[in-house]
Amino acid sequence: MRIVTLLLTSLICLSCTPQDAVVTDDEQDSGITLNQTVINLSSGNTLQIDARSEAPVTYQSQNPFIARVSVTGLVTAQHVGSTRVRLDNGSDTREITVNVNPVYNLYPDPILEFGITRTTLLQRLGTPDNETDEGFAYFNYSSAAPYVVYLFDENDRLEVAAVIVRTEYTTPLASHLAERYQYYASDDEYYYFINALTLDDATIGIFLTLDNADYWQVMYLPFAETKTVTEKRHNHKTMTGKINAFTTQMRAMQP
User: Fold this and answer.
1) What gap in Å lies between CA 46 and CA 128, rounded to an integer?
2) pLDDT digit string (tens) for 175-221?
3) Following DSSP, what letter does each residue of 58-102 receive, concatenated?
4) CA–CA separation, 116 vs 139, rounded Å?
5) Domains of the chain: which residue ranges?
6) For position 239, what pLDDT does the model report?
7) Which CATH code is given to the segment(s) 23-101?
8) pLDDT band at 245, cuts 50/70/90?
9) 40 half-sphere exposure, CB direction, 13 A CA radius
10) How many Å apart are CA 26 and CA 120, to the nearest integer?
11) CA atoms of 4 and 214, how far apart (whole Å)
């Protein structure tokens, strides 16, 4: 229970003018002047854009999941990734690149190219430490994560990925996930994250559950566009059973 309380607490807390062009004074006055064109932030941090313009400036984020921007130009870092903020004063436009960098790197992101073949993934990752008809695993994925698992469907195409994380890393695991994905909900068994601001826009679900007293199971599952919201939320339970069966068999085979 202490592990679950720690996790939930952590989730809640968390252009140039061509050389041969002639620029008039009027054109200069109508432009937007920026102090910087690249911003680097961590999730949750903010920065005010310093833009000078004779006319009012509007701001728009290309991807609010990564970073949002207020009507006054205050950028708030949301999730790890890169996006652009567009500035427009009616006569001139400028863009600022916003990089949201991770603070927590508990383990490398698994390959999430769902639908690729087993052969393709093996060629990319190399010989696994454990392999069955259902999938394969790599051991010593990171100091916090003993292994990563990839399982395949009946056509030998990637269906689900899972990372097994030691429960002693519960608090940093919560932060690791929260700065990359949107926390959505929880129930008695799972914590739900998505790779978008809303469930309707999500293409990947991340489902966190206790594998046992020693390990968390972090499952990555694709959201098919044709699935309903209910199907998106409940398909993971079938995958959990597959992962549990694979990891149980894998542990039994380890020396």
Assistant:
1) 42
2) 999 999 999 999 888 999 999 999 889 999 999 999 889 999 999 99
3) EEEES-TTTEEE-TT-EEEE-SSEEEEEEEE-SS-EEEEEEEEE-
4) 21
5) 23-101, 118-253
6) 73
7) 2.60.40.1080
8) confident
9) 3
10) 58
11) 13
- Residue 35 burial by CB count (10 A; 0-12/13-18/19+): exposed, middle or buried? exposed
Q: How far apart are CA 167 and CA 212, in angstroms?
A: 9
Residue (of 151, 195, 204, 143) closest to 172 by Cα position: 143
Q: How far apart are CA 55 and CA 232, in angstroms?
A: 46
CA 179-182-187 angle, 5° bins? 115
Cα distance between residue 67 and residue 88, in whole Å: 18
Structure tokens at 115: 């639908």
DSSP per residue over the chain, as a string? -HHHHHHHHHHHH-----TT----HHHHHTSEEES-SEEEEETT-EEE--EEESS--EEEES-TTTEEE-TT-EEEE-SSEEEEEEEE-SS-EEEEEEEEE-S--SSPPPP--TT-BHHHHHHHH-S-SEE-SSEEEEE--SSS-SEEEEEE-TTSBEEEEEEEEEGGGHHHHHHHHHTTSEEEEE-SS-EEEESSSSGGG-SEEEEEEEEETTEEEEEEEE--TTS-HHHHHHHHHHHHHHHHHHHHHHHHH--
Query: How far does CA 183 lie from the centroid of its chain?
Result: 11
Interatomic CA distance for residues 160 and 240, integer angstroms = 10
> For 134, how many CA atoms within 13 A lie in the half-sphere containing its CB?
15
Burial 120-142 (b: 16+ CB within 10 A, else e): ebeeeeeebebeeebbbbbeebb
